[in-house]
Amino acid sequence: MKRIPALMLAALLAAAPATVLAQATNDASKVEGGHFTLDKSHAKVVFSVNHFGFSTYYGAFPDLEGTLDFDAKAPAKSKLDVTINVAGLATTNPKLDEHLNSKDFLDTAQFPKATFKATKIDVTGAGKGKITGDLTLHGVTKPVTLDATLHGGGTNPMTKAYVVGFDAKTTLKRSEFGISTYVPAISDDVELVISAEFDRAQ
């Protein structure tokens, strides 16, 4: 067996990531539609608050479920439903997680889930849009608008599934959902950063 020269091997390894990335496109005109389910292993909602004016504190809701009916030719006609396991929040601090799950904050014993159901989608540019929907959190339902961006669509080179991925951001006031402990020392505004991949149903 011939040995592969070190320089050639290094070149092949360097080229491999580009080959993988070439499977996805962020050109909205080339993305395919269909019925999709959320890939739980590649989806997360990250939240942040101003902590007593000293820092920005981060946590996450890593346990999500959802469906997307994506109309590639008319994105505004797409449908999106997502359920968040609020009780599964993670800050890497077990005591803080316990406190956030308590009646002082999210009261997940009574309200373990949150849901978001899109009611309107406005296309604002190439691969960009505003997704307005009803967010139910802590037993309160209010409209929330997400600034969404198409991250990419294409065939996953590992699973061979067709995937579309999106990023989104929004800011909500937690007091409007009945979660007002320590406001304003811990900010009323909560910033949400969302990233999610959806696999097309076979």
From TrEMBL:
Q: Which InterPro entries match?
A: Lipid/polyisoprenoid-bd_YceI, TTHA0802/YceI-like_sf
SMART domains hit by this protein = YceI
Source organism, top-level taxon: Bacteria
Checking Pfam families in the record gives:
YceI
Question: Which keywords annotate this record?
Answer: Signal
Where does the UniProt annotation place the signal sequence? 1-22
Domain Lipid/polyisoprenoid-binding YceI-like span(s) in chain numbering: 35-199
From the Swiss-Prot or TrEMBL record, give the protein name.
Polyisoprenoid-binding protein YceI
Q: Which organism is it from?
A: Nitrospirillum iridis
Give the source lineage, highest ranks first: Bacteria, Pseudomonadati, Pseudomonadota, Alphaproteobacteria, Rhodospirillales
